[in-house]
Design goal:
The chain is mainly alpha-helical. It is 58% helix and 0% strand. The protein has 7 helices and no strands. The protein has helices at residues 11-14, 18-23, 29-42, 47-54, 58-65, 73-83, 87-91. It is globular. It starts with 10 loop residues before the first helix and ends in a 6-residue tail after the last helix.
Length: 97
């Protein structure tokens, strides 16, 4: 299981202009669902352990992975931090591991 000992640097988002920040919201729910599940499974995490790290209900992770709901921007940032990747990689179809 992946250890999350690294603090995510949120200051990078303070440097983004309005258009760049808005582009974070461009991902489709199916892209986020697929990418999130791929990242989680590849890291050897359960939905419950990811939910615990993100301080959300495990049902929320299930909804995200099935494309029923989309995490908010703050949660997308946290998800990227947990997996040591970018919000872009979580949100769009071009995820490569």
């Amino acid at each position: 299981m992946m250890e999350n000992n690294k603090q995510f640097d949120f200051e990078i988002f303070e440097k983004l202009d309005k258009d760049q920040l808005c582009s974070i919201l461009g991902g489709q729910s199916v892209d986020i669902a697929s990418n999130l599940k791929t990242l989680r499974v590849t890291a050897g995490m359960t939905r419950d352990s990811l939910a615990e790290l993100l301080m959300v209900n495990p049902t929320a992770v299930t909804h995200w992975e099935h494309g029923r709901r989309i995490p908010d921007v703050d949660t997308l940032i946290e998800i990227a931090g947990v997996f040591g990747t970018t919000v872009d990689a979580v949100s769009y179809t071009h995820l490569t591991l």
